[in-house]
Amino acid sequence: xxxxSVRGFAVASATAVTTVGAVVGVxxxxxATVNAEATAADATTIADIPAGAQAQVQTASLTQQADExxxxxxxSALKSAQEAARKAxxxxxxxxxxxxxxxxxxxxxxxxxxxxAASRSSERTDLGDLVGKSSYTIAETQAIARQMMAGxxxxxxSNIVSHxxxxxxxxxxxxxxxxxxxxxxxxxxxxxxxxxxxxxxxxQIKWGLNYMNDRYGSPCGAWSFWQANSWx
Length: 232
Description:
signal, single chain, mainly alpha, 0% strand, Transglycosylase_SLT_dom_1, Transglycosylase SLT domain-containing protein
């Protein structure tokens, strides 16, 4: 029989070693009580232990190793399962959020289109009601102007008109002959926008807006020049 070292087996299992000690003691005609640590320290080769005890030691060590490996495998499998569950839950939540965001965007776009269509329809109706009257209030004249230009240009246009005519479409400068909301000089220039230039604020606004766009790029460009020079 080959002499194989069992120093690693000696402390693998206290219960197994005690059993080996008992077997050795019985075989030698000694009492069954054996000190496990002493036995582990003294044992050096399998040849010193009966064949049955060798099998018990090996079985106990292998069983312990198998239990430890199984425990590690179970912990690793549990960790992997938990990580997979967290990932799946996160992906599901993100998918639901994306779907909700897309639906909300579609609904918001639909509302905007509906509101814009309603606003344009209202503006066409209001402008039609205002044009062709025999006289206009300042509020009505301003409402016409708002509908004839971009929203971000109205305030600049209004600033100029307020200084030039105070929103009076019949305003006349006795000294120069300038006339209307934008004080065209001479007033007859506005005939290019319509023959009713003397009585229709919409015609005056159309002419004034074209003038500001052609000369300064926009009403706001005209207002910047007016601020620096007090004329435009």
